[in-house]
Design goal:
Largest sheet: 6 strands, parallel
Strand content: 5-15%
Low-confidence stretches: none
Shape: globular
Number of strands: 6
CATH class of the largest domain: Mainly Alpha
CATH topology of the largest domain: Dehydroquinate synthase-like, alpha domain
CATH architecture of the largest domain: Up-down Bundle
Distance between the termini: 49 Å
């Protein structure tokens, strides 16, 4: 059986946080829990709190211990829906705590930095921690997504650029998925792949919009991120939007890189496109044009870290990619990074 789960509603516009109350009333929820960070409480959750009678939890860290505390709060307070207001970390806490307690959750993103707003996927480090502690790392898609563009557009520009990098990385993710289908017989959905590629192409073809009219660019990127999340729901996995470039990003996370997820994926896309014998130069040029990192220095890491990440990433999950089952040698990794200009 192939199970597909989608958001029931996706609302996008300005000054629409009041629509969260509409969803709550429509589904007859009685005891909502709003999760937010200190900053996203000020810019978003505080407005929802004025409209909706709800429990509130402001979290500063997103780790398994924190999510276990949220799980306890949900149980003790008889919560019947979780509302996440924030970026990727708040979305992770919301979807995982909701999944552990078998509750629906509503996504209220405050930036356009990645596709966590509409997908079941959680971050690699949180997934790894859950596995180490014997907790489920499976989450479900949101019941609804409410995107207030007035808030999203005011987020730091770097978050918009990170979202672009996350979408552009779909190019290599889909190529890796096709490769796994041909060589390993892995399930492949042409529809999910096409939707994922369309989301990536829209960003590449409208790079000038992202740079010159960031308000319109943010709307384009948000729509692409939602579509990317839907593609994952269709596939039943993160395959349409996560391949070798994401493994590279995960490896950088383990090695202590502090760049944004989408920034790391963008640099990974340059190198993995080279391995796929695809047009890696165009990917690099688009990333540079919109102001995204394209080198180790711009990511804030040294050359050795890039090389180590490239040799490590194939070991991080059981997912066939262009890196193969044995990965690449340190010598090959160094040559790849030098050839693509990621290291000097």
């Amino acid at each position: 059986m192939h199970f597909m789960e989608f958001p029931r509603e996706v609302l996008l516009g300005r000054d629409i946080l009041s629509r969260v109350k509409d969803i709550i009333n429509r589904f007859n929820f009685q005891t909502p829990l709003v999760l937010a960070g200190p900053h996203t409480y000020k810019i978003g959750a505080s407005k929802i709190e004025k409209e909706v009678e709800a429990e509130l939890s402001i979290i500063k860290e997103t780790d398994i211990t924190t999510i276990e505390d949220i799980q306890t709060l949900i149980t003790d307070s008889n919560i019947d829906v979780v509302i996440g207001v924030g970026g990727g970390r708040i979305m992770d806490a919301s979807k995982l705590s909701a999944s552990w307690t078998n509750l629906p959750w509503i996504s209220v993103p405050t930036s356009s930095s990645n596709d966590s707003m509409s997908s079941q996927a959680i971050s690699f480090l949180l997934s790894r921690e859950a596995e180490e502690k014997g907790k489920s790392k499976r989450a479900h898609a949101p019941l609804g997504v409410v995107i207030d563009m007035g808030i999203v557009e005011r987020a730091p520009r770097r978050m918009l650029i990170s979202g672009c990098g996350d979408l552009i990385s779909n190019y290599t993710a889909v190529r890796d998925w096709e490769l796994a289908h041909r060589l390993k017989g892995e399930y492949y959905s042409e529809y999910a792949a096409a939707l994922s590629m369309m989301s990536a192409k829209l960003v590449v073809e409208n790079a000038r919009m992202v740079t010159e009219t960031p308000g319109e660019g943010a709307r384009l990127v948000v729509k692409g991120l939602v579509s990317s999340g839907v593609a994952m729901s269709i596939a039943g996995s993160s395959r349409p939007a996560s391949g070798s470039e994401h493994l590279f990003s995960h490896a950088l996370d383990l090695l202590g890189c502090k760049a944004y997820h989408g920034e790391q994926c963008g640099v990974g896309t340059i190198m993995m496109n080279y391995l796929h014998n695809a047009d890696w130069k165009s990917m690099r040029d688009v990333l540079k044009y919109i102001g995204a990192p394209a080198t180790a220095e711009e990511l804030g890491v040294d050359n050795d870290t890039i090389v180590e990440a490239l040799t490590l990433c194939h070991t991080l999950r059981d997912r066939y990619t262009i890196l193969g089952e044995k990965g690449i040698t340190k010598k090959a990794a160094k040559a790849l990074a030098e050839k693509t200009g990621v290291i000097q």
